[in-house]
Amino acid sequence: MTVAADSLQLATELGQLLLRKKWTITTAESCTGGGIGYWLTAVPGSSAYVDRGFITYSNKAKQQLLAVRSATLLQFGAVSEQTVREMAEGAAKAANANMAIAVSGIAGPDGGSVYKPVGTVCFGFCVNGNVASSHLVFAGDRQQVRQQAIDYALKQSIELLTALAN
């Protein structure tokens, strides 16, 4: 399958799970720039579970739209599990959604450090008020890092919702 077919298949599967639960989802995206929202809304009928999403590329946007605390950004940085947890919670609350996906990372080609190399992406998930987070370091160029982050976020969301159904 192509990248597009993989992403669309994941978004379709996630959409079916959301429809079954009669849930809504929102996104809070930084390094993926709306890519998760793009694939969620590429699915026909997605308006039944997608109302809005947030592209919060700057720290200012994260604070204004998602209520990320300045202390969190100062202490941990925009690319941290602490920040994406707050992004996910803030997005879920702002959108009145059952589920939120938040992503912040360093897609490259520059901007990395010893502690947070290029390819580092943090993920936050808020599911009915319960928050989980993780981070990975992806290999590849800017577009490859972004695409891997989008697909990982969709896969993790499917896994979280599937686990709730069991």
Automatic annotation (TrEMBL):
Q: InterPro entries attached here?
A: CinA-like_C, CinA_C
An example Gene Ontology molecular-function term: hydrolase activity
Domain (CinA C-terminal): residue spans on this chain: 9-157
Q: Which SUPFAM superfamilies match?
A: CinA-like (SSF142433)
Keyword Hydrolase found: yes
Task: Could you list this entry's UniProt keywords, alphabetically sorted.
Answer: Hydrolase
Q: What is this protein called?
A: Nicotinamide-nucleotide amidohydrolase family protein
Q: Which organism is it from?
A: Rheinheimera lutimaris
